[in-house]
Amino acid sequence: MLVLSRQRDESIIIGDNVVVTVVDVRGDKVRLGIEAPREIPVHRREVYEAIQRENHQAAQIDPHDARQIGDGPTAGETV
Q1: Which H helix or E strand runs over 14?
Q2: Is residue 51 part of a domain?
Q3: pLDDT tens, position by position, 10-63
Q4: Rounded to whole angstroms, how far apart are CA atoms 15 and 39?
Q5: Would residue 19 count as lying in a domain?
Q6: CA-to-CA distance for 51 and 56, rounded, in angstroms?
Q7: Do 61 and 70 form a contact (C-beta atoms < 8 A)?
Q8: What is the separation, in whole angstroms, between the first and last Cα of the chain?
């Protein structure tokens, strides 16, 4: 892991097109601004891990059960 020291309003560049800037420091919290192309997803780690868990669970669904997810009344059909 690369560890860098930055002060408020200082940045680091990742690759050619991702810029991470220290926006504010308050006590033990740091606010970061991230500029990245739209095609590069940027998530907090806990959100990323939740997405990965959901994707893994969705991949475990039985194909037969998955076909029934969209099944419901069609136009003009009553329940």
Answers
A1: strand 11-14
A2: yes
A3: 999 999 999 999 999 999 999 999 999 999 999 999 999 999 999 998 888 777
A4: 14
A5: yes
A6: 9
A7: no
A8: 58
CB 17 within 8 A of CB 37: yes
Q: Indicate the SS3 state at residue 21.
A: strand
56 within 8 A of 74, measured Cβ to Cβ: no
- Sequential DSSP letters for 1-35: -------TT-EEEETTTEEEEEEEEETTEEEEEEE
Q: Which tokens in the block code for residue 4?
A: 């860098």
The Cα–Cα gap between 54 and 41 comes to 16
Burial code (b: 16+ CB inside 10 Å, e: under 16) for 51-61 equals: eeeeeeeeeee
**Is residue 15, in this structure, part of any structural domain at all?**
yes
Residue, of 32 and 66, whose pLDDT is higher: 32
